[in-house]
Amino acid sequence: MENQPYSLFSSAETEELTFFADLILPIPVPRLFTYRVPRGMTDILKIGARVIVPFGKRNGRVLTAVVARLHNSPPTQYQARYISEVLDEYPLVTGYQLELFRWMSEYYMCPIGDVMNIALPSGLKISSQSKVQFNPDFDYPELLTEFETVLLTELKKHPALSYDELERLAGEGGNVPALIKSLISKKAVIVFEEVKEKYIPKMIRKVRLNRNYEEREQLLVLLQRLEKLPKQQEVVMRYLSHIPMQRDPTLNQKGLDKTILNQDEELSQSSLTTLLKNGVFEAFEIIQPRFSDDSPASSVEIKLTEAQRAASQQIMAQFEHQNIVLLHGITGSGKTEVYIDMIQQAIGSGSQVLYLLPEIALTTQIVVRLQRVFGDKMGIYHSKFSDNERVEVWKGVVSGQFQFVVGVRSAVFLPFDNLGLIIVDEEHETSYKQHDPAPRYHARDVAMMLAHWQQAKVLLGSATPSLETYYQAKQGRYGLVELFTRFGEATLPNIILVDIKQEKKQKTMKNEFSSALLNALEMNMERKEQSILFQNRRGYSPYMQCEDCEWTAECSNCAVSLTYHQRAAELRCHYCGHKEDVPRICPTCGSTKVRTIGFGTEKLEDQLQIYFPNSRILRMDLDTTRAKNAYQQIIQEFESGQIDMLVGTQMITKGLDFDNVSLVGIFDADRLIRFPDFRATERAFQMLTQVSGRAGRRAGRQGTVLIQTNSPQQSILQKIIENDYKGLYEEEIQERQDFNYPPFSRLIKLTVRHTDKAISHQAAERLTNELTDMLGSSRVLGPEEPLVERIRNQFLYDILIKIERDKVNVKAVKAYIQERINDILTDKGLRQVSIVADVDCL
Question: Residues forming the annotated binding site?
Fold first, then answer.
């Protein structure tokens, strides 16, 4: 793979050759598309550059594509069309990225166009829209109908109109597509594609004094001249108060943000307009980076404890002979400080650094800490940012503005070309796995491949590593460094199991709260300390049911019950988004006894307000954090002490650090432990340990964790109390080996979908039989209906394939699976079936 910009011609002797480009198009077709390179583009087109190409029918849409290969071999299957336009003088996609796209396409069994589509921020893709304009050569009005005449009259008033604009003009009575088709046949209009880049730089409008007044003498003359115009003189004086030209005349060229003068209520805006008109001031625009570069790294010095320094030194020593190292550090051990030390060393050597976090909620707190150290050297990349903000980070990596980027899983696609270190924090987190759409990749694994190509090092960090990662470390394939002391003399919390079955018998439960938890919350309030309450289910109640006939409100599109959301006063499907009004009576029997069953974070929040009316309570879940800055606002309020209790889902378990949290309450632990999945025990240990770790992070004060459970005797709960990760690992790894689950095998899940259940089952059975014939029944399990067997009106069947890591050619198996899938998709009777491959499924 060539990593440098590549020009088509190396000498004048080749100028007469016709060249072609193999392009990656953002469509789900498993191949590249060959286009002809116009002669005017031959000297500027480079591998990795974006281009605009026509696609589909002759007057079809246009797409943004990326150049993957340049050559002089025309396609044999079709006539190559011409590239329309080159968008980049210098490639925005590196050679390493193109290699990554190819690998992901093959490994995750998806078209390379799907990889490119998710890798590039939408602001770097081109939007096309059909436009219609009047044909100036048209001179036959007698051919037009009355309605066409009206439409053409409107078109003459504008340079061009879009289809949407024409539909608004035509109203309900006009069939715009038919009208346009008729006008085209009469040669009355011209239809063309208007293409525009979605990325729009942020422009700042500024004003500055005319250069003639930069000299002191001329400026005094101006002020004297304006003495008779006091309002204009005041505008100039106010400008000078912001831009002290008297001390440094060169400051004038930077100018002043015009909004500062516009928003000054004491100034006459008409006077400013007059000064601009008369040339005393001049207006201009500059491109303003959305990530302010006026906050250079401060002099904050990270002081490592003895344990942290030892961990950092061990990591560096292991990097001498290992490319991947696992830092296994308990919650609150100060892994972030170790990361900062590693980042500083990597940047000091001139390398780029990527720091991955599993959730945006985590970035809010950690980013502030990192910015104090790295300032404007650091870029931030996640999905809550706008298209334009993400494009600026992308271009900032290309230009070298950002040597260090912190982001979520999609940050692995940024155009790094000199990576020295990748940190994957909380590497066990399921958020690193993308489920929809394709590619269904795991950012941790992609980061390892990216590091391999760029000869970078990878540091994985977690208090509760995934069993697969810990196994690789114990086998010696990864380095292993352990950090088992909490930072600053803080101690691990005291974990107490509350037997809610016993409390129910004694009738001491109040709704979802045990008496032990309510008493602990009250004592915490008296001490003016904060509490976190964890329930991994949002909404008010998981479902509504009739007490008389047991009717349950279910989604019309999916085989799930509808969740009741009290604030919105609606029933909502968390799979497809379907919403319904809350029924007052049972639609089956007419009973008025329709009740909510179970509880979510919204219900807990309401009950807490009843029990603690004087407390300040906030909820943090998907419903309360949809806005761009919602995470940041909630965390800031809690961190500043404005909030007494924080109720939340799993997003509150991930790395948040609050000094004043001394109590954590956990609801519904049994549901996590008994979830029907081979990873359920591991996941429950990770989640409960992580949320427990939010308590008692201040030195000199031990936190308390109350876990409400119906079965306090469960062995997994004892391991959580004792923080016995190694005990969990030894039990689980033996079971994984006995039943050939990861890390001893690779899993590929195939999900067959169709709106007709019989057809879906037929396709799944056929695929299972064909795979079993080649791979054997021990490796192919299914087909079976998943827990939710219908989503968005499609019936689902899962097929699970287990492939031994060391005995089977995985690449050949995937190729065979893809052939069998293609056979089914090309069968006339099964063409509407869709089959989704999920490699390394979770």
Answer: 546, 549, 555, 558, 573, 576, 586, 589
